[in-house]
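Exercise: predict the fold of this chain.
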Amino acid sequence: MTAQALLKNDLLPLTLAHTGKEAFYWMNDCHVQHLPVVHEKKLVAVLSEEDLFNYSLFDSLATHDFSLMTPVFVRPDDHVFDIIRVMGDHRLSTVPVVDENGNYLGLVSQGDVLRFFTNCASFSEPGGIITLEIAPRDFEMSAVCRLVEEEDARVLSAFVTSSLQSDTVEVTLKINRTDISRVVASLVRHEYYIKQTYGFDQAKEGYRERYDSLMHYLNI
């Protein structure tokens, strides 16, 4: 999945003619903390709510000094992982998409990325979730998947997380079976440490309510 597939044009950028007050209210209406400023189809800057209060809210954005602000953006063919990296590095709620000629094409929001991963994680599929804690030297995804498949199940999705404070990685698996007891037992027999398990059918309604609340907040 690339930025081209995720970008939206219905969330309009700011222009130099907008006042700080208009920019502030537009960010609030769109439930974002950052919006690009575009002039003659070119990206000028990515403005945050905090930036607005460095100037009078009644003045136009043309009075802002953008010379020290390096525009942050992604290209249309950048992968979703690149978008996440840029958002994380710069703590952005939106990131603009710009072509090779510097023309503004649209933007990608945190909500767009979240929706993409929700779909990738097979949220609507019934099943269970298992979180393993593994030393990096012992982690082999193919071996884990083989054990799952030997119990007549399969991995719908998986992701790995780690931190500098830990010498282990967490591997979270979404399994296509609601009864994951046999899969868990097999992993334990093979000396995998099970950190957490979730019976997805039982928790599904709670997850759906939390997800719906978040989507409502993001106005998706």
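Check your answer against the key: The longest helix spans residues 200-218.
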